[in-house]
């Protein structure tokens, strides 16, 4: 009987020690680890308890990688784009001011106020400099009819004609694109000079 009682007392002491250790672990936020060490929970439970932390960390990293900073309209308008408008060979040009220039063979002529030859080399230089325009603040069309002013009509060798127009809001419009361009203004000024016989 004495041996049995001794065994029970020892077992009770061990159990109390385990409970006290578990309580201490709970207070330190390590309940799972403490219970595992005293043999109450298996190691797999402890490993499983740590997985949510790792998953949360991975999710945070993924969120940081996927964050995209939106570009505001003001920032977009500062970027300068390019517009190539005469990939097809140009045959004629007619401006708002009444200048009309046309190519016959390899030579260029102004037709107003009367037909006369102009410097063909300068005309080709003009095309080389301004066939690709530097533009800013490019936007899609508004799909609302506006009273645009025709600035430049372009005739191509394939028979097609397209026009640069100016909208009431001050945007140039070409082939479905609205934009602003100091380069286009410069092109119009230089074209008038070429039509008047000046060289580039």
Brief overview, please?
With 200 residues, the chain is α+β, with helices and mostly antiparallel strands.
How are the strands of the largest sheet arranged? 1-6-10-9-8-7-2-3-4-5
The portion of residues assigned to helices is: 40-55%
Low-confidence stretches: 30-38, 40-78
Radius of gyration: 40 Å
Helix tally equals 6
Taken together, the total number of domains comes to: 2
Overall 3D form: rod-shaped
- Describe the largest sheet: 10 strands, antiparallel
Notable characteristics:
alpha+beta; 2 domains; 10 strands
Protein described:
The protein is α+β, with helices and mostly antiparallel strands and 200 residues long. The protein contains 6 helices and 10 strands, in the order ααααβββββαβββββα. It has 2 domains: 2-66, no CATH class; 73-195, no CATH class. A hairpin with a 5-residue loop joins β8 and β9. α1 runs antiparallel to α2 (31-37). The model is unreliable at 30-38 and 40-78 (pLDDT under 50).
